[in-house]
Amino acid sequence: MDMQTRMHEQLSALADGELDESERELALAALATPDGQQYWRACHLIRVALQADAGAAATAIDGGAFQSRLARRLAAEPAYGRRTAAAGGEAADAGGTDAPSSATLP
Length: 106
Hints:
Blueprint: H1 3-15, H2 24-30, H3 34-62, H4 65-76, H5 82-86, H6 90-93
Helix pairs in contact: 1-2, 1-3
Domain Anti sigma-E protein RseA N-terminal: 8-86
Pfam family, one: RseA_N
Region (Disordered): 82-106
């Protein structure tokens, strides 16, 4: 394996948080080179693009149905504090910790 390929693998592993501690110094030294800096920027641009694609793919697959169901269920939940006042202040007297219901999403 040539040195440039090795450096790219180390920088990619560093960007992913998977670099072995014993190789960290070499990767950091590679970041001091113009090629290392260019590859580092490319790794981060690729990550951003993949994350954006993953988010878009999840939305396209679900068609926004999950967000709609979540919005409806949140709207149906009583607001924090309103339940406390309606219950005669019992929860407020017990320390004010009125836990929201634990509705499950499909």
